[in-house]
Amino acid sequence: MIDPISALSPLDGRYAKSVETLRPIFSEYGLMKARICVELEWLKALSHEPKIAEVPEFSRETIAEIDRVMNDFSLAQAAEVKAIEATTNHDVKAIEYWLKKRFENNAEIQKVNEFIHFACTSEDINNLSHALMLLQARDEVILPKLAEITVKLQQLSHDLADVPMMSRTHGQPATPTTLGKEIANVLYRLNRQIKALKKQEFLGKINGAVGNYNAHMVAYPDVDWETHCRNFVEQSLGLTFNPYTIQIEPHDYMAEFFQTISRINTILIDLNRDIWGYISLGYFKQKVKAGEVGSSTMPHKVNPIDFENSEGNLGMANAVLGFLAEKLPVSRWQRDLTDSTVLRNMGVGVGYAVLGWVAHLRGLNKLEANPATLAADLDATWELLAEPIQTVMRRYAVPNAYEQLKDLTRGKDGITPESLQQFINGLAIPDEAKAQLLALTPALYIGKAVELAKRI
Question: Which intervals hold domain Fumarate lyase N-terminal (predicted)?
Answer without folding.
Answer: 13-313
